[in-house]
Structure formats: C-alpha cells, structure tokens
Design goal:
This protein has a domain of 31 residues. It is elongated. Helix content is 62%, strand content 0%. The chain is mainly alpha-helical.
C-alpha cells in the first residue's frame, strides 16, 4: 500500500498509519535513553532560574534605555 501513489481517503490513511505503528521498528543498535542528555529535576530548575534572572535583567535594562531615549530625545 505504501507504493500506491494515488490519493487515499482519510480512513485508509489512518488504517495504514496504525498498521505501521503496530509493527516493531528494526534497530541494530540499542536505543539510548534521553536521560543522559536532559538535566534532571534540580538541574533543570536551576538552569531555568538562571535563564529567568538573565531575562529579567535584560528587560529592566531595555526599559531603562527606552526611558532615557524618550526623556532626552
């Protein structure tokens, strides 16, 4: 059915997709877990706090610059 180039109805397409989802994916290498790449709990919160602090500082600086430009120009 995948070689068929004619348009399919939605129902036929959904059936085809569910059949493909049910088939196990052949993989030669074992899947790596995402936990090695993503920070966990406290690390994620700490990084978000750091980013939020920088965002607040940048917004405050931009507000002050805007005020100065509007006041003196």
């Amino acid at each position: 059915m995948a070689d068929n180039k004619q348009p399919q109805s939605r129902e036929a397409y959904r059936r085809q997709q569910t059949k493909q989802d049910e088939q196990p994916e052949p993989s030669s290498a074992p899947k790596k877990s995402r936990s090695k790449r993503q920070p966990v709990g406290d690390q994620r919160v700490g990084r978000l706090k750091h980013r939020l602090n920088w965002a607040i500082i940048i917004v405050l600086i931009l507000i002050i610059l805007t005020y100065l430009v509007l006041f003196f120009v």
